[in-house]
Structure formats: structure tokens, C-alpha cells
Amino acid sequence: QVQLVQSGAEVKKPGASVKVSCKASGYTFTSYYMHWVRQAPGQGLEWMGIINPSGGSTSYAQKLQGRVTMTKDTSTSTVYMELSSLRSEDTAVYYCARARSPYSSSWAFDYWGQGTLVTVSS
Amino acid sequence: DIVMTQSPDSLAVSLGERATINCKSSQSVLYNSDNKNYLAWYQQNPGQPPKLLIYWASTRESGVPDRFSGSGSGTDFTLTISSLQAEDVAVYYCQQYYSTPYTFGQGTKLEIK
């Protein structure tokens, strides 16, 4: 069965960086685009970006450009999301989510990781 | 960016009654080449990730009860729960995946009256 298992909660100081992992299993890793979505406490869902686990190409939300980097490790079927220059507004639960159909980014998200809480506090 | 606006922000419905949530996009999410609306609906319970209910505006995801249905085209969409069950209490989000950034509505909180 498809599973996306994320790394554990993090507490970071303002200005630091955080790297969240998402390990995929139960399907062909390189065939399905992966998205990252975040949710601030008590707030809605915000799309952060997408990575093609095959070639590694990425597309990021404009507001995060320059601070976010998404990468992949095909050998471990893991995607990573690194966010730098953290500020208090980055406190949120971060989710990875798989595009529902292979080889295309323009699909709804069918499987989600369990979420990783990142807290930014001095 | 395409702005997604849901209404209402919250909704209280009696058990067994119909619940209707609306979603409006700031531009059409209907792709002419395949005649598909790039619109999805998700359900989120507290402390859980969202769950995909509907994609292509009206296609139910496998395993989703048939009391959930989606309709609409272009810029105006509706999620309907035909007979509300206690387990349907949640926050519901619409999302467009027509163009990046793949934006979500602000969410609609559904409660039991």
C-alpha cells in the first residue's frame, strides 16, 4: 500500500533552516510528482511547490522563491523540503502529497504524509 | 494566481439533511483541450492530513461514500453531502490544479446542528 512517512517535529530559531523528509513506499517513486503543502496553526492549506522525482525538476510558490529547495534521493525513495531564513510565520505543519496520476503534475493529491510540525521560536 | 473562495465559512446541518458547500475560482479552471475542470475537494479532520474526496470536479475518489458529490464547471463549483452523517463533521477545502500555484479555498467548517 502507498505510504508517505515524514520526519519528526522540529523546533528552530528565527533565521535558521529546516529540512523535512518524506519517504515514499508502495509505488514506483519516480513515476509520481510530489507536492509540499503547509498549514499554519488554525489556518488553511498553502501550496509550496512540486518536485518531479524522476528528473528532479521543481516549481515553487512565488512567495517562497529563494527560501525553499525541494530535492529527491531516488535510492531511498525520499523527497526533501528545505526552508531557510525561518521566521515565526513559517510555524506550520508541513505535508508532502502525491499527485494522483503518474507522469503528470496537473492532478489532485491522493496520498498525504502524516505532517511535520515546524515551530519557529526564539 | 487563481483565487479560490468558498462559502459559507461555516455550516451547521442536522443529521440526515443535505449540506452544500460552494467554491468559486477567480478564473476558469476548465481546460478546453480535454474539457475537464481541474478542481478537487478535500476533507480534513483535526490533527489529520486532508483526504481527497472528489477530483475533476465531479469524480468521486475510490472508497468515498456516494453521499458525497461534486458539480459545477468553469468558475463555480459545489460539494454536496446528500444525507449528513456524524462522521462528516470536518473542514472541507476546494483546490484548483489548473495552474501553479495550486491554490486552495479558505475552508468550510461543517458541524452538526
Describe the sheet with the most strands of chain A: 7 strands, mixed
Q: What best-fitting shape of chain A do the alpha-carbon axes yield?
A: globular
**Cα-atom Rg of chain A, whole angstroms?**
14 Å
Query: Termini of chain B, distance in Å?
Result: 36 Å
Give the SSE string of chain A. EEEEEEEEEEE
Mean pLDDT of chain A: 96
Oligomerization category of the chains in this entry: heterodimer
Helix content of chain B: under 10%
Helix content of chain A: under 10%
- Let me know the number of strands of chain B: 12
Strand content of chain B: over 45%
% residues in beta strands of chain A: over 45%
Give the chain pair forming the largest contact, with residue counts.
Answer: A-B, 21 and 22 residues
Mean pLDDT of chain B: 97
Largest sheet of chain B: 6 strands, mixed
Distance between the termini of chain A: 40 Å
Explain what the structure shows:
The complex is a heterodimer of chains A (122) and B (113). Chain A is an all-beta fold. Chain A has no helices and 11 strands. In chain A, strands 2, 4, 5, 6, 9, 10 and 11 form a 7-stranded mixed β-sheet that branches. Chain A has a 4-stranded antiparallel β-sheet with strand order 1-3-8-7, with no helix packed on it. The relative contact order of chain A is 0.32. The mean pLDDT of chain A is 96. In chain B, 0% of the residues lie in helices and 50% in strands. Chain B has no helices and 12 strands. Chain B has strands spanning 4-7, 10-13, 19-25, 30-31, 36-37, 39-44, 51-55, 59-60, 68-73, 76-81, 90-96, 108-112. In chain B, the strands form 3 sheets. Chain B has a 6-stranded mixed β-sheet with strand order 2-12-11-6-7-8, with no helix packed on it. Chain B has a 4-stranded antiparallel β-sheet with strand order 1-3-10-9, with no helix packed on it. In chain B, strands 4-5 form a two-stranded antiparallel ribbon. The relative contact order of chain B is 0.34. The chains are: A mainly beta (122), B mainly beta (113). Chain A binds chain B through residues 35, 44-47, 50, 59, 61-62, 95, 97, 100, 106-110, 112-115, and chain B through 1, 38, 40, 42, 49-52, 55, 61, 93, 95, 97-98, 100-107.
